[in-house]
Design brief:
Strand order of the largest sheet: 1-2-3-5-4-6-7-8-9
Largest sheet: 9 strands, mixed
Strand content: 15-25%
Helix content: 40-55%
Low-confidence stretches: none
Mean pLDDT: 95
C-alpha cells in the first residue's frame, strides 16, 4: 500500500451548492405542537431561521477559502483515505501535536486555536510553547470518506494516527481531543506510549464500578456529575441509541434533507454549549457533513464503539483533563485516576462540549500549560 502523502484542496462543485440552496428553498418543516418546548427537541422557529440563513446569506466559498488557506493533505492508512491539516510552526523546536475532533464536529472546530498553538509569538505567547499541528478528519468524516469498510474502532483509529505521525517524521508527539477525539487521543497514548509524551482531553467519561461503598465515598459535586452521566444515557442519549444501532437507516433522511441534517447537528450545539457558537461556523461544520454526504459514515463510529466497548484499560501516558462547566458530562477525578495517569486537572467556569469553538483562549492556555512540563 502506498505511503504517499498528497496535497489536497477543497473544491466543492457549484452544482452541489446550487442543489443545496434549491433543497433548502423547498424544505417542508414539521408543525410545531402548541406548548411544546426545547425539551422535546429543536423548536421549529429556531431551525427555520437557521435554515433560511444557510440558504440566503451563508457563503460557503468564503469559508472554503479559509480552510484552503491551511495546508491540507490526504494519505492512505490501513486501506482508508485519511484527510488532515498539517500546520507547521515557524518555531523549529515546536512540539508535534495531533488534534482530534468528534461528532458532530470536524476539523472546523479547531480553526480558532491553530494560530495561537502554532505561532504563540504572534499571539502574545511564549514561542517555547509552540506546536506543529496535525489535525486529521476521523475515518468516515468530511474528506476522510467514503469509508473503505467497517471496523474503525477507537483503537484502530489511534493506530492509524500513530502511523500518520510516523509517516510525517514525528518520533515524539502529544495528543489532544474532545468528544470521540478524547477517546482516540487516550487510546493513542496507550497504543503508542513510547512516542506519545502526553494526552490532553477536554472530555472524559468516568464510570463507577457498581460498588455502593465507592459511590458513598464521593462528595456532593462528584455525585452530581454521576447523575449527569445518568441523564445523558437516558434523556439526552436518544441520538446515541439510534447511531449505535441503526445509523444506516437514520442516514436516509439526513442524506436527502439538508434541513434534517442541520436539525440533527444544530440540536447538539444548542444543548451542549453554554451560549451556542458562531452561526456561520456552525453552518460550515454542517455543510461539511452535507457536501461530503457523510451522515451515515460519520455515525458508524457509534456502532463500532457500542459493539467493541469494554471498560477502558489503564493508560500509562501522562494525562491532562480540562473540565468545562457546561459540558453535558463532567468527569469524576477519583474515577479517572483509576484508568488514566492524571498529572494535570483544570476546571473552567465557562464553556461547554465544544471547547475549541467556545473557549479557544482558555483551551489553548491549558494545552500549553500541560505540555510545558512534558517537553524536552
Amino acid at each position: 500500500m502506498s505511503e504517499e502523502i498528497r496535497d489536497f484542496r477543497i473544491d466543492i462543485p457549484q452544482a452541489d451548492l446550487d442543489d443545496l440552496r434549491e433543497r433548502l428553498g423547498r424544505a417542508r418543516l414539521p408543525v410545531q405542537t402548541p406548548g411544546a418546548g426545547p425539551e422535546r427537541g429543536l423548536p421549529v422557529a429556531a431551525l427555520a431561521e437557521l435554515a433560511e440563513h444557510w440558504a440566503t446569506a451563508y457563503d460557503w466559498r468564503l469559508h472554503e477559502k479559509r480552510l484552503n488557506a491551511l495546508p491540507q493533505y490526504v494519505t492512505t492508512i490501513d486501506g482508508q483515505v485519511i484527510h488532515f491539516l498539517h500546520v507547521r510552526s515557524p518555531e523549529p523546536d515546536a512540539t508535534p501535536l495531533v488534534l482530534t475532533h468528534g461528532w458532530p464536529g470536524s476539523v472546523v472546530e479547531f480553526l480558532d486555536v491553530i494560530g495561537p498553538l502554532t505561532d504563540p509569538r504572534a499571539h502574545g505567547g511564549d514561542p517555547a510553547d509552540a506546536f506543529h499541528l496535525v489535525v486529521p478528519s476521523l475515518p468516515g468524516f468530511g474528506f476522510s470518506a467514503p469509508l473503505a469498510g467497517p471496523g474503525w474502532t477507537l483503537e484502530r483509529i489511534a493506530r492509524a494516527w500513530a502511523t500518520l505521525m510516523a509517516r510525517l517524521g514525528y518520533d515524539r508527539y502529544g495528543a489532544q481531543g474532545g468528544d470521540w477525539g478524547s477517546g482516540v487521543s487516550r487510546e493513542l497514548g496507550r497504543v503508542d506510549a513510547g512516542r506519545v509524551i502526553g494526552v490532553h482531553v477536554n472530555y472524559l467519561m468516568t464510570f463507577p464500578h457498581g460498588d455502593p461503598a465507592e459511590q458513598a465515598e464521593l462528595g456532593e459535586e462528584d455525585q452530581a456529575r454521576l447523575a449527569g452521566l445518568e441523564r445523558f444515557t437516558g434523556e439526552l442519549g436518544g441520538y446515541l441509541a439510534i447511531q449505535s444501532t441503526r445509523p444506516q437507516t437514520l442516514a436516509f433522511g439526513l442524506a436527502d434533507s439538508p434541513v434534517g441534517q442541520l436539525a440533527w447537528i444544530a440540536e447538539k450545539f444548542a444543548e451542549w454549549t453554554e451560549n451556542g457558537v458562531d452561526r456561520d461556523r456552525l453552518l460550515t461544520n454542517v455543510s461539511l457533513y452535507w457536501l461530503t454526504n457523510t451522515a451515515d459514515s460519520a455515525a458508524q463510529i457509534y456502532w463500532e464503539f457500542a459493539h467493541a466497548w469494554s471498560m477502558p484499560e489503564r493508560s500509562p501516558t501522562p494525562t491532562g483533563v480540562a473540565v468545562f462547566a457546561h459540558d453535558y458530562v463532567k468527569p469524576v477525578r477519583a474515577l479517572a485516576e483509576r484508568t488514566d495517569t492524571i498529572v494535570h486537572w483544570s476546571e473552567f467556569a465557562h464553556g461547554g462540549h465544544f471547547a475549541a469553538l467556545e473557549q479557544p483562549e482558555a483551551l489553548t492556555e491549558d494545552v500549553r500549560t500541560f505540555f510545558r512540563a512534558l517537553r524536552g
